Amino acid sequence: MPVNYIDFKQAKDQEGLRMVVVGGLPSPWGEAAKGILHIKKIPWAGVYHNPHDKEMASWTNTNSAPVAIYEDEAPRSGWVDILLLAERLSPEPALLPKAPAERALALGLCHEICGEMGLGWVRRLEGVHKGLQGKKGGFPEMIAKYLASKYDYNEHQVHKHGPRIVELLKMLAERLQTQHDTGERFYIGSTLSAVDIYSATFMGYFKPLPAKQCPMNETIRPVFESLDEQISKALDPILIEHRDFIYSEYLELPLSL
Question: pLDDT tens digits for 94-137?
Fold first, then answer.
């Protein structure tokens, strides 16, 4: 079902789970959080993020999104905090393995996709750099400047972005191929985990879904589609095949942006 978006002030007074999300584009962190709540059938109300609203920033304790706020509990803005909240609110289906070693593996893979200097983080910095340099495939200049100040963009670290993205894409593809060789379609074992959801949603940062399925702001789509030669080679078809499988079997389409 489409997300029920409500006014910020209404959300403050409402009980249950509310989540502040970016509107108009498929922020992979937000889309993953939406997907987790959908799979677990956790009801929630959406609020569009307004980076200029100081009252909203005070309520969420951050100027970022997504942020999940459950009842009167403290806001949760980190990807792992939102995941663990969802696991608590709806233990089944579990999206983290119960066995400690597999759980550690799952959280490690998730971090390499979602965490600081992970796949999404570095891909975003790549778009920031292109935007600041006026290059094709970069964020519009105003957005690039905003993101640069927010995520510690350093021009002298740019040479590390491409190789980091390539090594992470190759690592994920190799993991999936190993699983496929044993007859499995998921990253871990034979069941869906959070790793599958994060991988599927973050692949949209490299090859976004078609406009009918992902009606994103068209000024941003070129940023998500821009790939240099090395990254394009590292984007193994198995990653996109896995994305399409997860969306067709577990996630909602079209996206509610």
Answer: 999 999 999 999 999 999 999 999 999 999 999 999 999 999 99
Q: CA angle, 179 as apex, 174 and 180 as ends, to 5°?
A: 95
Residue 2 confidence (pLDDT): 73
CA 150, CA 12: separation in Å to the nearest integer? 25
Per the structure block, which two tokens stand in for 47? 């609020």
Question: pLDDT tens across 220-240, in order?
Answer: 999 999 999 999 999 999 999
Q: Could you tell me the CA-to-CA distances from 11 to 63, 68, 73, 197 in Å, in that order?
A: 17, 11, 14, 26
Structure tokens at 85: 């909240």
CB count within 10 Å of CB 9 equals 12
